[in-house]
Queue: 2 jobs
Job 1
Amino acid sequence: MKIPKRLLRKILRDCKRSGSGIRAADIKNKKFLICFPFDEQYRKIAFRVFSSVIKSHQENCLCLISENARDLLREVNDDSIIIVSIPEDIQRNPILPSGASEKIQSGDYTVAVDLNTGFHPYTAAAVLKTKAPKRIGFHSEYSDYFFNIQMTKKKEDPVESSYRYIHHLMVDSFKL
């Protein structure tokens, strides 16, 4: 997704208003955020790869998902889910809704993951707002602003292999 620089500045300014975050040395509860992709096919693949982690760590997991995909996480407690509606014109409303921002900022995170293979301002901002020591997402024109670990999706590789690698990075974070 291509966005004008003024909107990028607006999103980053909104993220800077977030809380202080945690350092790797302060990690105790190992909370994590997973932002599911908005593409239906990728979302199903992501759920298949990450469902075991979500179910086994539900009390420390927060999932961001679009409103039309809530039934995918039907076994997950409502307190562990942020449901966002995606506006038709993201240019008019590029900022993550305030309720979602507040819920994200109320926790201390070890790792935050954006599973959208292309840039989306809502999921990228959600990851940045966590202030997690590990912020993982896919490489894009804007990814340097939001993620400190970036995946490059090769056209010949299925997205599932990238998701499995991200899953591996997440599980390693729990072992700190």
Job 2
Amino acid sequence: MGRSKKQQKIIDQLEKNCAMTRQFMEDWLRFNQILSTYPKPGVNKAELENEFLKIKSKLAREHKALRDSLGADYALDGNTMNIVSGATNLESIYSQSDVSVKKLQNEWHRAFIAVNETLGGLEDKKARAERGEKVFIGVPGVDMPAGGVSSGGGMSPTMKRNVMIVVVLLIIVAVVAFVPPVRDLYLNAIQDLF
């Protein structure tokens, strides 16, 4: 059985999101590789500093695009980019205490796990969509199940407004029916008309 256009659009978006997350993870690994290589003897520190600045810039751009594209599927914590922005340059990182460097490495690792979890969730969602299951993706304008028919997720704004109108009308009818002075006022007004 072929896929509907909506299903294919969701699968295509999930594939794009998976590819973006994989690229971010590769660059996140490169960030750590540069960070770990710097203290080793015999390395070209000036070249590593230059690579470090480039990878930080790339990560910042990718992070913004990833956050916008993933929408509700974005599961990285705010600490991820704090690691990048706080690491001004390699020399200043390694001029700190060993405890500070270890803390940075632990924070990097936690963020790496979060990136992997995000990728795993996206890949699972894509596989389910390819099998025809209804999945929701967190992108504005594409929030629909892969099956093509919405099956939940709350009320639309129009439905909420209609429910509120019905509730207000029911309250008015209840007040008119059960509050004697108001009921008498309306009954007298109706009798005067006829």
